[in-house]
Amino acid sequence: MARAATTSDAFNAVAEPRRREILTYLAMRERPVGEIVTALRIDQPSVSKHLGVLRKVGLVRVRCEGRHKFYQTNAAAIRPMHEWTREFEKFWQHQLIRVKERAEKKVSDDRQKPNPHS
Amino acid sequence: MARAATTSDAFNAVAEPRRREILTYLAMRERPVGEIVTALRIDQPSVSKHLGVLRKVGLVRVRCEGRHKFYQTNAAAIRPMHEWTREFEKFWQHQLIRVKERAEKKVSDDRQKPNPHS
DNA sequence: TTTACATATTCCTATATGAGAATGTATTTT
DNA sequence: AAAATACATTCTCATATAGGAATATGTAAA
Question: How many other CB atoms sit within 10 Å of the CB of residue B6?
């Protein structure tokens, strides 16, 4: 089997850096495709294709108005990723504490038995 | 250009569902490869390859002891993803509030002018 | 109804993937 | 030294990209 499709879920869709830029850009307010093109300096067909992927996984919403299409990030679709990464929060906190403890222990030991190099 | 390598960053590495399972499994404590194989029911070569990807992007650490290799999730490497998704928290909160407001407004309207179907 | 504008789609290609199977490499045990 | 154990690597293959170029579709303006 090959790699999972970019349209299979939010994790795969968001793996592409350009798509992350687009999502950030569209988070505050909706924008027409043309503005994404000029603001992020990506070719228009490329933007349309990225938006297609993001739309398929529900990461953006579209509103049509005449010949313009206004896209906006659907932040709620990012929430599951936030929740998944949150599971690891307690672990990186523990790790940081252990690093800190080791550093403090070292300082304490150095006071007892000074560094031979100094 | 093709898709970015799975080893290019945490986002790409984590796009694969099996690798997310492995990271979750290795979060609490280190485990030898064999335990991952039996616990998650993934073929051993596949596990080794996934671990190779995870190691390249710093998502797991290895400790060698005889013919065993103990892998553990390096939670700190997941933190940037958590921070990135966090940027959208305020937006999905706004969206949920707006949805709630609309629902409440509808209830209020319905009291004024009862549903014609009832 | 032409013309201009905004966006989407198609075709192409180099490249990377994940799974399965087979094999390689250390390390330990007998 | 041979056998067993624990992992890693290599090979093949079907599949899916992302970007570039060209073209299509749909809407509005002249």
Answer: 22
